Prior knowledge:
The structure holds two protein chains of two kinds.
Chain A: E1 3-6, E2 11-14, E3 19-21, E4 23-26, E5 32-38, E6 44-50, E7 56-59, E8 62-65, E9 75-77, E10 86-93, E11 101-102, E12 106-111
Parallel strand pairs in A: 2-12
Antiparallel strand pairs in A: 1-4, 3-9, 5-6, 5-10, 7-8, 8-9, 10-11, 10-12
Chain B: E1 5-7, E2 10-13, E3 19-24, E4 31-38, E5 42-50, E6 53-57, E7 64-68, E8 74-78, E9 87-94, E10 105-106, E11 110-114
Parallel strand pairs in B: 2-11
Antiparallel strand pairs in B: 1-3, 3-8, 4-5, 4-9, 5-6, 7-8, 9-10, 9-11
Amino acid sequence: GDSVTQMEGPVTLSEEAFLTINCTYTATGYPSLFWYVQYPGEGLQLLLKATKADDKGSNKGFEATYRKETTSFHLEKGSVQVSDSAVYFCALRAAGYSTLTFGKGTMLLVSP
Amino acid sequence: DSGVTQTPKHLITATGQRVTLRCSPRSGDLSVYWYQQSLDQGLQFLIHYYNGEERAKGNILERFSAQQFPDLHSELNLSSLELGDSALYFCASSTTSGGLQETQYFGPGTRLLVL
């Protein structure tokens, strides 16, 4: 079945450091790919998405590129802030299906 | 604020009991999805309703059931509760039945604790 694998956390960074959170997927066909963020005590918010190969999703300084050849959708940010501390979830929606399959989440902790 | 509301925010109950979680989708959204987030299983899809009809079922136990009403709000019923049902339950909504471009918007969740 479909699955998403994320790097295990927590990822601990200093403010202004470069962030990469790895995400790879297994799916039949061509899924849509998403990154969601969960701040402490809150629900999930869509951070960015990409719906076809080579698409780049971007939002609030975060970027991820849909790489079909490596089945990856790694999340990057050039300079993290303390306010970026949260749990980040990579997810896919398989073509023809309505539901999301999530990775286990990666906690990011940014210190001043 | 996503526009999806869930009540209650917190629920504490005992094993063997039954509870009902409620979700109101964003205005105009026809689809409602339920997910369970637990420490051991992560985020798992439970069930999807579109305009009152069940569209997809995931890892939902037989003790759990859901429905979507004519006003499009949805309820998730959990019965014969066990300790392992303690989790955060999220509702999400989307405009239609889940096209490739479509985004699911999540509510703040209901935290269930079974003692």
